[in-house]
Design brief:
It is elongated, with a radius of gyration of 26 Å. Helix 13 links the parallel strand 10 and strand 11. It is built from 17 helices and 19 strands. Helix 6 packs across helix 7. The strands form four sheets. It has a seven-stranded antiparallel β-sheet with strand order 13-12-1-5-3-17-18. It has a six-stranded parallel β-sheet with strand order 7-6-11-10-9-8. It is an alpha/beta fold. The chain has two domains: 258 residues, nicotinate phosphoribosyltransferase, CATH 3.20.140; 170 residues, Alpha-Beta Barrel (TIM Barrel), CATH 3.20.20.
Length: 453
């Protein structure tokens, strides 16, 4: 089977290249600014978590067309030799301002703005959206699970059902960024220095003649980190066997770390298992639960009084099952010093280069104001200059630093905006300068293109 290696620069939609060829023919090389934003919230969302920027910066910094890429494009018969020669020398030379990873942002706010010669800025559109759309969706979903868990530990169990291996790595990274404690994904642990967790599968239990023999074998190999899966046959029978193993381990100077529940009525079962362990004098055994969890199920079982200390969160988080995409767009907002916009119904864009100012009071976020980049606003400016002339402005943040940034800002967002269902929208306003310019450009466009006075 052939490998899956590919040139990232060709991971694009054809029309990015055909537009580039037309720009080239028209000698359009002036600076253009494109703004990346999300038009609206998926159901039960009222915020987003910034993620994926580091990947985008790596892509931009290494942008180039290899001879193999150019030969392929030449073979399509669509592009002139002059344009292909131009592409052979093309590198990203532009500027990027963005909201750093781990910070919160809201609909219509630019998460990232790219300013570069228009061919460069246009060509990167597809990759930028692809990289950031998934990671924002997952980071936001994971943060909702963190909120629902109310301080309990969460582990990413999603790898086997994510949409491909690359997605599995991104899910592990972004869920950790958003407050998860670790992942079952060993490669992600290696690449990103994320703690790795795992227990055992039902196949391990059924491969032994008796459940307790499987438990005993595992505890002897991993005496410092034994978590036993107790529902292969019946939860309370499994709990009784786990209690026996706990006593055997204690006699050897070790302790049973926990048990895992993976099926059934989690609230009811966890209460029974907890009561049994308490009665046996084994109060220190943690109860870990997996099996179809996301923020909705976590919130529900805790409302029902579940005695669960930690959750393995898999498929529904790893594919953001209830909101698997965002309505993310990358739109031209300025070309050759001329502010531009789109007036399509339901898809109107905001003109020009922008900044977002975040206002706080008493340690809480109170509102954001989307402004023109050149305006001075009150509050903290969120978009930072992270790339200049095609090079990073500063070293990348560590994942731990991004995780800390998220935790600190998430604590500042009122719970009404983090509600699992029907959250209250966060206040976002347009500055006076942006409103005025928007109205001017709308009037100009309607007069020129639609004949309206």
């Amino acid at each position: 089977m052939e490998g899956l290696a590919y040139s990232p620069v060709l991971l694009t939609d054809l029309y990015e290249l055909t537009m580039g060829a037309a720009y080239y023919r028209q000698k359009m090389f002036a600076p253009a600014t494109f703004s990346l934003f999300i038009r609206d919230y998926p159901p039960h969302r009222a915020y987003f978590v910034s993620a994926g920027l580091d990947e985008v910066l790596d892509f931009l910094a290494s942008l180039n067309f290899s001879q193999e890429d150019l030969d392929y494009l030449d073979g399509t018969g669509r592009f002139s030799q002059d344009f292909l020669h131009y592409l052979s020398q093309l590198r990203f030379t532009g500027h990027v301002s963005a909201i750093p990873e781990g910070r919160l942002f809201f609909k219509d706010e630019p998460i990232l703005e790219v300013t570069a010669p228009i061919i460069e800025a246009q060509l990167v559109e597809t990759y930028v959206i692809n990289a950031i759309n998934l990671q924002v969706a997952i980071a936001t979903k994971a943060s909702r699970c963190v909120h629902a868990a109310e301080g309990r530990s969460l582990v990413d169990f999603s790898l086997r059902r994510t949409q491909g291996a690359e997605a599995g790595l991104k899910v592990a990274r972004t869920s950790f960024l958003s407050g998860f404690d670790g992942t079952s994904n060993v490669l992600a642990g290696k690449l990103y220095n994320i703690p790795i967790f795992g227990t055992m599968a039902h196949s391990f239990i059924t491969s032994f003649e008796n459940e307790i023999d499987a438990f005993r074998a595992f505890s002897q190999v991993f005496p410092e980190n034994t978590v036993l899966l107790i529902d292969t046959y019946e939860n309370m029978s499994g709990a009784r066997n786990a209690a026996q193993i706990a006593r055997e381990m204690a006699a050897r100077g070790h302790s049973l770390k926990g048990v895992r529940l993976d099926s059934g009525d989690m609230a009811e079962i966890s209460k029974k298992v907890k009561a049994f362990f308490d009665a046996e004098g084994l109060k220190e055994i943690s109860i870990f639960a997996s099996g179809g969890f996301d923020e909705f199920k976590i919130a529900q079982v805790l409302k029902e009084g579940a005695k669960i200390d930690a959750f393995g969160v898999g498929t529904k988080m790893g594919v953001s099952a209830d909101a698997p995409y965002t309505d993310m767009a990358y739109k031209l907002v300025k070309y050759d010093e001329r502010p531009v916009l789109k007036l399509s119904a339901g898809k109107k864009t905001l003109v020009d280069e922008k900044q977002v100012f975040r206002e706080k009071r008493d340690g809480k976020l109170i509102k954001d104001v989307i402004s023109l980049r050149r305006e001075k606003g009150s509050g903290e400016p969120l978009l930072k200059p992270i790339m200049r002339h095609g090079e990073r402005s500063e070293p990348p943040d560590t994942l731990e630093a991004i995780r800390t940034r998220f935790r600190e800002e998430f604590e500042q967002l009122d719970d009404c905006h983090k509600a699992i269902t029907n959250p209250k929208p966060f206040p976002v306003e347009l500055s006076g300068g942006l409103q005025n310019l928007q109205e001017e450009v709308v009037h100009e466009v309607k007069e020129k293109e639609l004949g309206e006075s």
